[in-house]
Design a protein that fits this description.
Blueprint: H1 2-15, H2 27-34, H3 46-54, H4 67-94, E1 100-102, E2 105-106, H5 107-122, E3 157-159, H6 166-173, H7 175-179, E4 186-188, E5 192-198, E6 204-209, H8 212-231, H9 240-252, E7 255-261, H10 269-275, H11 278-287, E8 291-294, E9 297-300, H12 312-331, E10 338-340, E11 343-347, H13 351-360, E12 364-365, E13 376-379, E14 382-385, E15 388-389, H14 402-416, H15 426-437, E16 445-447, E17 456-457, E18 464-468, H16 477-488, E19 508-512, H17 525-528, H18 532-535
Parallel strand pairs: 3-4, 5-8, 16-17
Antiparallel strand pairs: 1-2, 5-6, 7-11, 7-12, 8-9, 10-11, 13-14, 14-15, 18-19
Length: 536
């Protein structure tokens, strides 16, 4: 009887209509979020002005600029960048080795020093490098919703003709993948496929869906460069290193922060060929997509690799680090040089020479986000003014759900306590946060992590939290096993390998929250005085 009742209970529960606890927002709440920074009107401190200017700067909305116009603008910019890349390729190929790229420094001497740095980092090229990984992104054969890494080990896999011969090397290095029949159902394709993703109000960002096998091989190179750079003090797992240097630069002016425009799209074939050892260049050239489908037209690229290629981030980090190290050597400026992609930290004194050399190799320094003088520095998402953390937060899309509201409220609270010295605006900040908090169900209070949008950060004991529903894709056992085996085969795994991206599913259930960590001293002053309860 007991078992029967339990089964009946389960059956009844499974038939219960699902209720999405990620509630929709009414028009008044949406307007409040959009006008959030109005509480800072009249405040003239740098942090307040900076937040007012930046809060809506990345907002993407059909009501502002339609998606098709943002997409068209992004593709037009990409094609213009490619025309610039063609000029860079021609100029680098024809550049005299006696040209003085710096005062009394020939291009030949400069290249030689940079080449030695890159060669030392890369080390020898061996067969084990073909063992890469898959990400959770879309490929030329699979949509985003079908892109779990394990799925890419089964069924059809796309590959370019230049990369196809390396499938045999993969099977030689990982015999079990051969025995499982992985990567045998191949389809040869011409190259990658360009698509766009939201970036900011006026324009999207271009990226590419790579063929499956190419991506697997590219990730092997990317993982290798990442591991090797760590030996030389460049840790691409840790953005806080650059942020600490930016903080220091804002205090004493010793360090400059550089940001490049469209950096990954301006890594040209000639730049890579001139800087990398021949065997490395030829291998990377084979496994990259040398052509990209753009709006139905196959384009042979002037760039070497784009966003979406599995080694672009690591390759650009290596190239920029080598170029900056070489500038430092020939100009005599000593000090910290740190890179994270196209976020560069260099001694302030070599800023002008660094910008010149970067332009000579086809890169464009963004003057609006690069700082060598004054009290402000910005790197890897960290913004600092005279040693104060003034990092803003952004509303990137029109809020529609409860999770959007919680995210903004948590970000506002983090901003209020990112640095000392904001006591004069705490009352108005608290009042605005309270206005948002009232709209969040009380049982979702008690969060401890500002980065989450499923619990409101407060000093209360945690009760419940929102949990997003997982995607309902079925992963074959063979694919899961092949993915696990590939990740652990004869090499040190990279923590981010094979991890699918964080879901943005809007459907949520409500679950009991685990006991939270002790609430630390970032309370609003009203809470410290015990006034939070009466205020709410």
């Amino acid at each position: 009887m007991h078992k029967h009742n339990r089964k009946q209970k389960c059956r009844t529960s499974s038939n219960t209509k699902f209720q999405n606890r990620n509630l929709g927002l009414d028009a008044s709440t949406v307007a409040t979020i959009l006008e959030l920074t109005s509480f800072l009107d009249g405040q003239e401190d740098f942090a307040s002005i900076h937040l007012r200017n930046e809060y809506l700067s990345k907002l993407c909305s059909e009501n502002l600029v339609p998606a098709d116009i943002r997409r068209t603008s992004a593709i037009r910019k990409w094609l213009e960048t490619e025309r610039g890349n063609a000029h860079t390729n021609a100029r680098l190929r024809g550049m005299s080795r006696q040209y003085n790229i710096l005062p009394r420094v020939t291009f030949y001497s400069f290249l030689g020093f940079a080449q030695r740095i890159i060669s030392e980092v890369l080390g020898p090229l061996n067969n084990e490098l073909v063992l890469g990984s898959f990400s959770g992104g879309a490929s030329t054969s699979r949509r985003r919703t079908e892109s779990h890494p394990a799925l890419k080990f089964t069924g059809q896999a796309d590959v370019t003709s230049a990369a196809a011969p390396y499938v045999g090397v993969i099977h030689h290095e990982a015999p079990l993948l051969r025995e499982l029949g992985v990567f045998y159902n191949l389809r040869e394709v011409e190259g990658a496929v360009l698509f766009t993703v939201p970036k900011k109000t006026e324009i999207d960002r271009c990226a590419c869906k790579e063929p499956d096998i190419n991506m697997y091989l590219q990730k092997g190179v990317g993982n290798h460069i990442r591991r090797r750079l760590r030996r030389f003090g460049i840790d691409l797992q840790d953005q806080s290193i650059n942020r600490r240097h930016a903080f220091q630069g804002s205090l004493d002016g010793s360090l400059a922060t550089l940001d490049l425009s469209s950096a990954s799209d301006t890594i040209t074939r000639s730049a890579v060929e001139s800087l990398l050892p021949d065997d490395w260049f030829l291998y990377l050239n084979d496994i990259r997509s040398q052509c990209i489908w753009v709006e139905g037209t196959l384009v042979q690229t002037e760039m070497f690799s784009s966003m979406g290629n599995g080694f672009t981030f690591e390759l650009e980090s290596l190239i920029f680090w080598a170029l900056m190290r070489t500038v430092s050597y020939f100009t005599g400026y000593r000090g910290i040089i740190s890179v994270y992609g196209d976020d560069l930290i260099i001694p302030s004194g070599m800023y002008e020479d660094a910008c010149w050399v970067l332009r000579e190799f086809g890169f464009s320094v963004n003057p609006d986000k690069s700082f060598a003088t004054g009290p402000f520095r910005e790197s890897c998402g960290g913004h600092y003014h005279l040693g104060e953390d003034v990092t803003p937060f952004y509303l990137k899309k029109i809020p529609t759900r409860l999770t959007d509201l919680i995210r903004v409220a948590n970000q506002l609270r983090r901003w209020a306590f990112a640095a000392g010295g904001r006591e004069h605006i705490v009352p108005s900040t608290y009042n605005m946060w309270t206005k948002l908090a009232r709209l969040v169900p009380r049982d979702l209070w008690g969060g401890r992590d500002y980065a989450l949008d499923t619990q409101l950060v407060t000093s209360d004991p945690p009760t419940n939290r929102l949990v997003r529903l997982e995607r309902g894709e079925e992963i074959p056992d063979l694919g899961l096993y092949a993915d696990w085996h590939n990740t652990h085969w004869n090499r040190t795994g990279d923590p981010e390998n094979g991890q699918p991206p964080v879901t943005t599913n809007q459907k949520c259930r409500k679950r009991r929250a685990k006991p939270g960590a002790p609430y630390l001293a970032d309370e609003f002053y009203h809470e410290l005085l015990g006034e939070a309860g009466s205020a709410l």
